[in-house]
Specification:
There is one protein chain. It is built from ten helices and twelve strands. It is an alpha/beta fold. Helix 2 crosses helix 3. It is globular and about 65 Å long. The C terminus is likely disordered.
Length: 310
């Protein structure tokens, strides 16, 4: 029986979740021609065409649609086996830092997979702001972190982007105003700076209608219709949606996030960083398929010798 290479299946799902061969190439860290070759090899193994021309791009054939569910299950089992073999005798602790956005979305499932295979490793989770987490990583308090990228750093092992979005209550603002009412985190916050800079550049009047030291307070203010805010799509749930176009809000930049690993981190932290880097890419492509323009650049080829996930 021919075997389905997990590497080929990873690229196949990158195409499915990313929506194009070019996007798949970005996700898996290969060239477009290499991705095309991989898809041809997978079709040879399956014995059926998986992709079909569709407009200017490619779509899935019935056989391709049928393979998607199998591919996800195969890769899930493959990942569980890899983690189990790596972690069967490992112990110690891993200190992780993350912003609230990722603590609420995406991170719990990855930690569950890691904990199932590394039952003796104690997880210490710290949720905070990006600048605070970066300082904790530098001082050795944290082993790895996921936070907004302030500047390129030599300890980055993963990099991905998500669009910033203007968000408001699903019910709209309590009252339309000439000035844009903003709900913002207290300084220093990159989203706060980006929102103010965008409005200043566009010449729009605004006022800070609600301030908070936490995302929970920010969510309450936005849900109440007091103001709108600037975050990513991860914040858009539980009654919060993207602001209507008739609000006339200016364009905003892409938010850039980094996965950073302490230089002398122990093997369990290295393995968890690899798990984060590999899975946040595919999860983000699926999560942000309608809104996000994912750009991923993995660098796991540093002194720890983790290699290239692509």
């Amino acid at each position: 029986m021919p075997t389905l290479d997990p590497d080929l299946l990873t690229t196949f799902l990158a195409f499915v979740d990313g929506g194009s061969l070019a996007q798949a190439a970005s996700i898996v860290g290969r060239s477009a021609s290499a991705v095309t070759t991989q898809m041809q090899r997978l079709e040879d193994i399956v014995g059926e065409p998986l992709l079909v021309p569709q407009g200017r791009g490619r779509g899935l054939t019935p056989a391709g649609e049928h393979l998607v569910g199998h591919a996800r299950r195969i890769l899930a089992v493959h990942r569980e086996a890899w983690l189990a073999l790596k972690g069967v005798r490992a112990d110690g602790r891993v200190a992780i830092g993350t912003t609230q956005d990722f603590a609420d979305s995406g991170l719990p499932e990855l930690l569950r997979a890691f904990a199932a295979s590394y039952p003796r490793v104690r997880i210490e989770l710290r949720v905070g702001r990006s600048a605070e987490l970066a300082e904790a990583l530098q001082t050795g308090i944290l082993d790895l972190m996921i936070a907004m990228r302030q500047a390129p750093a030599p300890d980055e092992v993963g990099l991905f982007r998500e669009p910033m979005l203007w968000l408001c209550s699903q019910k709209g603002l309590a009252a339309r105003q000439d000035e844009v009412p903003l709900a913002l985190l207290d300084p220093h916050c990159s989203f706060r700076d980006a929102a103010i800079a965008a409005l200043d550049t566009a010449g729009r009047r605004y006022r800070v209608a609600a301030g908070s030291a936490s995302l929970a307070g920010l969510r309450t203010a936005v849900n109440a219709g007091i103001a709108l805010t600037l975050r990513t799509a991860r914040f858009a749930h539980s009654g919060i949606v993207e602001a209507p176009r008739d609000f006339g809000l200016p364009q905003v930049p892409i938010a850039e996030f980094a996965i950073r690993l302490r230089q002398d981190a122990e093997p369990p932290a290295q393995e968890l960083a690899a798990l984060f880097s590999g899975n946040l890419a595919l999860a983000q492509a699926h999560f942000g398929k309608e809104k996000a323009d994912l750009a991923v650049g993995y660098r796991l080829d540093g002194p720890r010798g983790l290699g290239d996930l692509g």
